[in-house]
Structure formats: structure tokens, C-alpha cells
Amino acid sequence: xxxxxxxxxxPLEENVYLIDNGRSLLVxxxxxxxxxxxxxxxxxxxxxxxxxxxxxxxxxIGAVTAIRSKYGIPVYVSPNEQEWLGNPAxxxxxxxxxYGIPEISVAPAEFEFERKEYDFDGMKFRVVETPGHSxxxxxxxxxxxxxxxxxxFKGSIGRTDLYTGDSATxxxxxxxxxxxxxxxxxxxxxxxxxxxxxxEKATNPFFN
Length: 208
Hints:
This protein is an alpha/beta fold.
């Protein structure tokens, strides 16, 4: 049984997820407020082993450098968005100073995800491609839940007006990779509250 801790960070209220089995811990999308994330990590008592990124928009990567440095752990990213980590124009942080958001440049990730199953100390998940919000967006499929970044939300989908976004691609991604999961699968999105696959299939206005 895995524990999932949600931490809401930053002005866009981005969801960071800590996934642990009591021994080891994965950090998904450390967006900002590194000290808040670190405090939540310490509370679990588990040892961080990796940072996983669903995609590389600034609100999902702002605390990567701090968390990576604090725990000495590697970062995993889509090969399609590796370059975005160090490119404020692509990760969306360029020109955001007026909103109190500095330009974000993160050192390259140590590993680029492959579309396969990963196993971190018994924490197993599949990596699937769910582009549309951005062309490198990924979702992580565990046994009874999925971490989907900004692909799917409760009652909505990710915005598609940003760099490499495309609405038709996103809808197709959700139907192909997410709506084929069991209805009871819990969905942990990059913003807002959790939902389930069954609830979104039945009620999401983009599909009904």
C-alpha cells in the first residue's frame, strides 16, 4: 500500500505529490515552496529517491533545484521536454517577473523517461504519454491511482493555448491512456482536487 501526500504550492496552487511506501519516497512535480515540501517529506519518515516530472511548465519545476540539492536525488523527465528545464521561454517563466515569478532555469535531468514500467523499491508504475497540454506531458499509472499532471482535472482538462499545446491531441490522449483505466482509479491532477476515472468519464463536459 502506497501513501500519497498532496502539497499545494505557489500562486497557481500547483499540486506536488509525495508517494512513499514507508521506506522510500518519490517527489512528483515540486513546483515551488521548497521548504514546505521538505517539511512534508520529513514528516513521512521515508527517504527521497527520485524527482518525477509530468511536464516542465514553471509551476511544476520551480523547486526542483532545491529538492534535488537537499536530498542528492536524480530527476526524471520526458525526452521531449528535457530542454525546457533550462529554457524560460519554453517553461513559461519568461516575462513573469511582474507577477512575482522569477525566470526558472533548471539543470538537465539525469534521466529521460522511457515508455515502460519503473520500479523504485517496490513502488511500481507505468509511464504513458499524454500530450496536448504540452507535447511532452506524461502520466504515471500505479496500481490503483494515476498521477496525470495537467492533462485531466475534475470536471475539466488542461489548457491547450500554451507552447506545443493542442486540444485535439489532449482529448485523444485522455481517451487512449486514461479513460481505458478502471473506473475506480483515483486521478491525482496537477491542480485542484482528486477525482476518479469513472467520474470523469460520466460527467466531464469535454467528453459528454
